[in-house]
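Q: What does the assembled structure look like for these inputs?
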Amino acid sequence: MSLTPPQLADIRCLAFDVFGTVVDWRSSVIREGESLGQARGLEVDWAAFADAWRAGYVPSMSRVRQGRLSWTSLDQLHRMTLDRILEDFGITGLSEADKANFNRVWHRLKPWPDAVGGMHRLRERFTLTTLSNGNMALLVNMAKQAGLPWDCVLSAELARHYKRDPEVYRMATRLLDLSPQQIMMVSAHQDDLNAAKDEGLRTVFVMRPLEFGPEARPDLTIDPSFDYVANDFHDLADQLLSRSEARQSLALS
Amino acid sequence: MSLTPPQLADIRCLAFDVFGTVVDWRSSVIREGESLGQARGLEVDWAAFADAWRAGYVPSMSRVRQGRLSWTSLDQLHRMTLDRILEDFGITGLSEADKANFNRVWHRLKPWPDAVGGMHRLRERFTLTTLSNGNMALLVNMAKQAGLPWDCVLSAELARHYKRDPEVYRMATRLLDLSPQQIMMVSAHQDDLNAAKDEGLRTVFVMRPLEFGPEARPDLTIDPSFDYVANDFHDLADQLLSRSEARQSLALS
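A:
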């Protein structure tokens, strides 16, 4: 693990997975659910609701990936799942405006505490891009609200393929006009990193043990072939920047 | 001219033309040409060279727009024009590395003096995106070098159509999930604004009388149907932000 100095010097761009890696979707959805519940007098287990919403994520994208559903943006997939689980949870009486607004909670997710500061440090040396299944509008709105300092916003939408389809990673190298070894994928999801690695990208596994909540027991056994493993984005900056760069970047963050 | 208050309140995004509007391509190309000339002992009129390079821009894109050339990135079009005018100017003896590096001068163009400060002010209220014929890699690299604070980088490359084809403007509304009236095109080129207006976008004409050099006499007769006319990006911020926003934004810029 960890690249040799010439390999590291080659890295031009860090490409970030977003949901779970940069932002804490679960707490954000719970918090907005609770506000909505209070405003509309609903009694709901919002943690269970958030988990059910997220549980619809992979199956809904799989329908697109397998060609059973034509290209559908993540906003639309989120809405399809929302409509289904509102029914499952027996929630009635929400207006169309309530539902449309709640569906956009995914545009308002809050970053993990280290994310913005760590990104500012990493941005001194690398080009930072999203490489996310979120649609462009979602990612741009999220960045604006959360203050995420991207140099570039790239979405699966531009490839009309969802991760882990290889077309998504290839789209990034093509649009940034870089070779795969010049891009390092940063993700809390090992299958994402393995798919990136298959396309020749470098890899960083960021541990986000709380992504699925304090009760979850995620498998944090780490594939030894990842180039770096980091506890958070500051730890990643400490590992990737030279000592003098790291000192400077801390002063800036 | 100038939108009513409810129309202005609808605007969510400013979409900027880049070459000539945000950055001063001519001075930047002349400056790098002079450095290259000194390093390689070349006697060249670099202002004439810059003008010739830029003169190849519209005709080369026209070949793509008319289907006489399949999709070709602006980096590649710039290189095709460069190879031709090097010959026209009788310049020989440049290595492939020299030519590849000089071709990337378009990634290193310098902003007009008001651009970065004005953008920081406008960004407090609006989402700022490029809507440029430059390819994604060019625009991302330029932003990084020049410190241009984009929220989003959108290129004609994503539509595989060059402005003024309507597909480029439609791509922006689609990817940002906005209606055309929520986007205002900011450009120093009236044909760009007219094409944007045809797609329902709002329009700002920014006067850049020096784009083609101090000798040029550009036609600054202004189409009265543009929503705003601005002398530079600070003037635009003064017009678009309320008085209290304008004061705050000046303190930030």
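The mean pLDDT of chain A is 95.
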